[in-house]
Amino acid sequence: MKLERSVILDISILAVFTIYFLFRKNFEFLTYTFTIGLLILIIALTIKKYNYSAMARYGFSAWLLMHLLGGAVYIRGTRLYDLLLIKLVESPLYILKYDQFVHAFCYFVITLFMLGIVKYYSNNKSKFAIGLITVLAATGIGAINEIIEFTTVIFFNAGAAVGDYYNNALDLVFNIIGAIMAVLLAKKK
C-alpha cells in the first residue's frame, strides 16, 4: 500500500514526538500518541474510499503538530496548552487559551473527515441533514476524546496537566464550535 504524503507527514510528526515523550517519561502524551497512531492508521486505510479533502488531511497534520507542541513546549514555565492567548473571559473559564483554540481547530478538521464519510453513505440531498449528522458525529468523537483524557487522568494521575471540570466542558464547547464552522465553510463551497 502506497501511503499518501499527508499520512507520511503524520507518521513522521508522531514518531519524533513519541521519542521525545518517551525520554521525558510523559505518560499522558504517550497515551495520546498511541491513540493518534490508531487514528492515523484508520485514516490511511480509508483515505481512498471516503475521498478525504486535502484540507482535512493536511489540517490533521497541522492539528497533530499543534497538539503535540501543546504538551511539549513551555513558555516562561507555562505549558503551551495552558497559555492564555487572548483574555476574553476571566476566571474560572479563562477564554481564549491555546487548548481551546486547538480543540476548535481539531474538530473543524475532524468534521471535514466526517463530512467525507457521511456524504459517502448518505442518499439524502438535504444539506441541513448532512451537516447536522456530520456535526453530531464529530462532536461524538470529541466526547470519546474527553473520555480518553479522563482515563489518562485516572491511570497516570495527570489531573493537574489535563485540567478540571471547566476544562472538560470548555473542550466540548470548542469542539462543537469547530465542527459548526467546518460545516458552514463546506456549505459555502
Secondary structure topology:
Blueprint: H1 5-24, H2 27-50, H3 54-72, E1 74-75, E2 78-79, E3 84-89, E4 95-97, H4 98-121, H5 127-156, H6 159-162, H7 165-188
Antiparallel strand pairs: 1-2, 3-4
Helix pairs in contact: 1-2, 1-3, 2-5, 3-4, 4-5, 4-7, 5-7
Binned strand content: 5-15%
What is Rg? 17 Å
Low-confidence stretches: none
Shape: globular
User: What is the straight-line distance between the termini?
Assistant: 31 Å
Helix content: over 70%
> What's the arrangement of strands in the largest beta sheet?
1-2
Number of strands: 4
Q: Mean pLDDT, nearest integer?
A: 93
- Helical run tally: 7
* Structural class by helix and strand composition: mainly alpha
SSE succession: HHHEEEEHHHH
For the biggest sheet, the summary is: 2 strands, antiparallel
Count of discrete domains:
1
Could you please describe the fold and organization of this structure?
This protein is mainly alpha-helical. The chain has one domain. It is built from seven helices and four strands; from the N terminus they run αααββββαααα. A hairpin with a 2-residue loop joins strand 1 and strand 2. The radius of gyration is 17 Å and the shape is globular.
